[in-house]
UniProtKB/TrEMBL annotation:
The entry's keywords: Gluconeogenesis, Glycolysis, Isomerase
Annotated source species: Brassica napus
Biased composition range(s): Polar residues: 18-42
Chain's gene name: BnaA01g13990D
PROSITE patterns for this protein: P_GLUCOSE_ISOMERASE_2 (PS00174), P_GLUCOSE_ISOMERASE_3 (PS51463)
One function term, GO molecular function aspect: carbohydrate derivative binding
Lineage of origin: Eukaryota, Viridiplantae, Streptophyta, Embryophyta, Tracheophyta
The name this protein goes by in its record: Glucose-6-phosphate isomerase
Length: 616
């Protein structure tokens, strides 16, 4: 059967009433046609919505009304599909934006914004300080085309790191490098310790591309949840002895990752194993983690760079080393990304899939994030794509200020899991409920490897159902005025996954320029880290107050008010109550018998005392 790209081999005649095997859309792509039913007064385009929400009430209604106007005529819809269909044949990736209602006028009005977005992106790739708030370059595109790096030293660094990743992974998989005391005589497991961009990329890639029986099976500790950590270590059991622990942290100081490391090192001690012989660090040079790994003599260390953000680090050692250890062809992943990078360098909007995505996002969410982005891959292996995009999109675009210092509270909310599964969960609301989203379908044409398929009923396979559910949902949503984008890949391969990642990295970057924000910093995250540190500091004060009281004879139980007063933090009494409730649930403080139960009257003392002392 011809592949999709063959079907697109030459331009179809739109006059054909029955398309035998339609081929590539009209090559003269400049002839965009005026969309029936969707022409509307240009004064009410969503563009005016980008200034601020308050200016949008009048045009909001008009643009919403315009958006509701559907193309009902099948011929017109088919023509729109063909006219706007983007295809990247080397990858086997197709982008259909025909079910997004942008108008001709809107496209024309966006041209100026795109001109500056393309220019900014060109400068970024040349090494400009594209992250002005942190004074950094943005270089994730150089990871898949080292020739783009603005300095020879960076080119060499990128190439040498890739080579060392490949040779290290080969040595581990072949057993040339083996754990010191493992019955298996080789590494069989990977335990990845990292969070955010130091986890989500490797998790997405593993779920999408790991073979059924990988040379090393990967699992993740991506949180500071002791029960979660215990669960992963318990599942490893004796295989801890053949586990390669990869600790990933660009900053080298993220608390959750540091806690995960300490917990895992304790598990190694308890098992009589030498962690350093099985530990690998992926972090910035001279970070706390890097220095720890160097001083303790860990098995290996791989660099992260300040010009690669966490959410765009999957094509660095962060994603490449775990992938290579699972037998995934990382050079194919890089190749797919490089091809997509080249495809998204063109300044021709209609021939730039990332620009088309950014334009659709802007149209659908009025350039202010007024609608959520629902990601619906109809493929189990792409389940984590939405979680990956949550960080890539929301940590990049969810910003309080624009580049001129205006308060914009920008963003695009991302959610979704997979189809058709989600049709049995929340698609009901998408179909009929509050219209606060636009959908993105990720379609994979290849259902099973050749020769593995069968008809579960005459002429119908399992994959046909999946295909039908996707197309049916897309039609049903559109019939009710709900817009959708469809990204189609022929199959899930390292090359197509690399391309998908690159497509969305570029789309986020272009969209950020359209709405004039810095996509490459994350000030809000620092605020969260600081607040967490303050809670822990208060807890330490509470513990020292309780410690002092519990050393008295007899032990002096304290009320919450007394604790807050002695912590010199009466205004923090609620947090103190929560701290004590959490410690009490973990047997670290005791609530005195007889307390009438209301938070105010709670009498508390440190867990090591016992109640008898209390009433001695
Ligand atoms: O890789 P690390 O330095 O440990 O950072 C892990 C994560 O921490 C923060 O949440 C940042 O906002 C993320 O972008 C980053 O991926």
């Amino acid at each position: 059967m011809a592949s999709l790209s063959t079907l697109y081999s030459s331009s179809p005649s739109l006059k054909q009433s029955t398309v035998k095997a339609f081929t590539s859309p009209p090559t003269t792509r400049g002839d965009s046609f005026s969309f029936p039913h969707t022409s509307k007064p240009t004064t009410h385009l969503p563009l005016t919505l980008s200034a601020s929400r308050s200016d949008t009430s009048h045009s909001d209604a008009a643009s919403a009304a315009a958006k509701k106007e559907l193309i009902k005529d099948p011929d017109a819809l088919w023509k729109r599909y063909l006219d706007w269909l983007y295809q990247q044949k080397d990858i086997g990736l197709y982008l259909d934006v025909s079910r997004v209602g942008f108008t001709d006028e809107f496209v024309v009005d966006m041209e100026e914004r795109f001109k500056s977005a393309f220019k900014a992106m060109e400068e970024l790739e040349k090494g400009s300080i594209a992250n002005p708030d942190e004074g950094r370059m943005v270089g994730h595109y150089w990871l898949r085309n080292s020739g783009l790096a603005p300095r020879p030293g960076l080119k060499t660094l990128i190439e040498n790191t890739l080579d060392s990743i490949c040779s290290f992974a080969d040595d581990i998989v072949s057993g040339k490098i083996k754990p010191p005391s493992s019955p298996a005589g080789r590494f069989t497991q990977i335990l990845s310790v990292g969070i955010g961009g130091s986890a989500l990329g490797p998790q997405f890639v593993a779920e999408a591309l790991a073979p059924d029986n990988p040379p090393l099976k990967i699992r993740f500790i991506d949180n500071t949840d002791p029960a979660g950590i215990d669960h992963q270590i318990a599942q490893l059991g004796p295989e801890l002895a053949s586990t390669l622990v990869i600790v990933i942290s660009k900053s080298g100081g993220t608390p959750e990752t540091r806690n995960g490391l300490l917990e895992v090192q304790k598990a190694f001690r308890d098992a009589g194993l030498n962690f350093a012989k099985q530990g690998v660090a992926i972090t910035q040079e001279n970070s706390l983690l890097d220095n720890t790994a160097r001083i303790e003599g860990w098995l290996a260390r791989f660099p992260m760079y300040d010009w690669v953000g966490g959410r765009t680090s999957v094509m660095s050692a962060v994603g490449l080393l775990p992938a290579a250890l699972q037998g995934i062809d990382i050079r194919e992943m890089l190749a797919g990304a490089a091809i997509m990078d080249e495809a998204t360098r063109t300044n021709s909007l209609k021939n730039n899939p990332a620009a088309l995505l950014a334009m659709c996002w802007y149209w659908a969410s009025d350039g202010v994030g007024s609608k959520d982005m629902v990601i619906l891959p109809y493929k189990d292996s792409l389940l984590l794509f939405s979680r990956y995009l949550q960080q890539l999109v929301m940590e990049s675009l969810g910003k309080e200020f624009d580049l001129d210092g205006n308060t914009v509270n920008q963003g695009l909310t991302v959610y979704g899991n997979k189809g058709s599964t989600d049709q049995h969960a929340y698609i009901q609301q998408l179909r009929e409920g509050v219209h606060n989203f636009f959908a993105t379908f990720i379609e994979v044409l290849r259902d099973r490897p050749p020769g593995h398929d069968w008809d579960l009923e005459p002429g119908v396979t399992c994959g046909d159902y999946l295909f039908g559910m996707l197309q049916g949902t897309r039609s049903a949503l559109y019939a009710n005025g709900r817009e959708s984008i469809s990204v189609t890949i022929e199959e899930v391969t390292p090359r197509s996954v690399g391309a998908l990642i690159a497509l969305y990295e570029r789309a986020v970057g272009l969209y950020a320029s359209l709405v004039n924000i810095n996509a490459y910093h994350q000030p809000g995250v620092e605020a969260g880290k600081k607040a967490a540190a303050e809670v822990l500091a208060l807890q330490k004060r509470v513990l020292s107050v309780l410690n002092e009281a519990s050393c008295k004879d007899p032990v002096e139980p304290l009320t919450l008010d007394e604790i807050a007063d002695r912590c010199h933090a009466p205004e923090e009494i609620e947090m103190i109550y929560k701290i004590i409730a959490h410690m009490s649930a973990n047997d670290r403080v005791l609530i005195a018998e007889g307390s009438c139960g209301s938070p105010r009257s709670v009498k508390v003392f440190l867990g090591e005392c016992n109640v008898d002392d209390m009433y001695a």
